[in-house]
Amino acid sequence: MTNNILTAQKRQVLGKGPSRRLRMDNQLPAVVYAKGKETVSIIIDPRQTTKLLMGPLRRNVVIKLDVEGQNSNVMVRERQIHPTRRSLTHVDFVEIDLNKPVVVSVPVTLSGKSEAVTLGGKLDHVLHKMKISCLPANIPEIINVDISDLSFGSTHAENINLPEGLCCAEKPRVVVLTIKKPRGAAKEEEAAKPAAGKKK
After folding, report:
1. For residue range 94-140, what is the model confidence (pLDDT) as tens digits?
2. Cβ proximity of 85 and 109 under 8 Å
3. Beta bridge partners of 109
4. Residue 9 three-state SS
5. How far is 69 from 48, CA to CA, in rounded Å?
6. Domain locations along the chain
7. CATH superfamily of 5-96
8. Distance of alpha carbon 48 from its chain centroid, rounded?
9. d(C-alpha 157, C-alpha 170), whole Å
10. What is the bridge-based pairing of β-strands 70-81 and 63-67?
11. 2-24 residue pLDDT tens
12. Phi, psi of 139 (to 5 degrees)
């Protein structure tokens, strides 16, 4: 985290016009929010900022922001992207405490091969990003879910085993993935239910 340094200057003139002129001069307007403090409007380098946000943690990166010699640890709260150029047009930062948990959305990846899938089950990856709570230093690049031991049915957020130091911030019953039975097998089961009832 110590290498993720971003330098900034305070912005004296606010408004859409001045912000547009900044972007024309290859500068990026931004703001910093902090609990119990006044919001600070700043100017940052768009290339330096984009480079930080394209790293392994993407927008979950913890940045050491240097505003004219005053340092603070921040994360991106919101960013605005140009609709056609796909370049940054504005960034909202929020100051964080490195000793307090933050809630972030982390990409979910799947690994392994489920026997249910081998038998013809259809794998549906539903939740592609999972909200977790952890200390800033423990933010992972991804959350990997091993599906090797999963059978037919749905796997919920509460079923995911997270590494030590991470807590799930999703609702417990949010579906992460589903393995659906093959059509033929599902129809056979439905047909077998009445037959089983007649034997009683």
Report:
1. 999 999 999 999 999 999 999 999 999 999 999 999 999 999 999 99
2. no
3. 144
4. strand
5. 18
6. 5-96, 103-182
7. Ribosomal Protein L25; Chain P (2.40.240.10)
8. 21
9. 7
10. antiparallel
11. 579 999 999 876 767 777 777 77
12. -65, 120
Q: Average of pLDDT values for 191-200?
A: 52
- Sign of the dihedral through C-alpha 189, 190, 191, 197: positive
CA distance 181 to 121: 5
Residue type, 121: G
Q: Give, in order, the Cα–Cα distances in Å from 34 to each of 60, 96, 135.
A: 17, 8, 18
Cβ atoms of 175 and 154 closer than 8 Å: yes
Provide the pLDDT for residue 190.
56
Q: If you write DSSP's letter for every residue of 82-124 in order, what string do you get?
A: -TTT--EEEEEEEE--TTS-EEEEEEEEEES--HHHHTTPEEE
Residues 164-189: tens digit of each pLDDT = 999 999 999 999 999 999 876 555 55
Report the side by side order of strands in the sheet with 153-156.
122-125, 175-180, 153-156
pLDDT in tens, 32-78: 999 999 999 999 999 999 999 999 999 999 999 999 999 999 999 99
CATH topology of domain 103-182: RNA Polymerase Alpha Subunit; Chain A, domain 2 (2.170.120)
| d(C-alpha 33, C-alpha 143), whole Å | 28
**Contact yes or no for 87/41 (Cβ under 8 A):** no
- pTM given for the model: 0.83
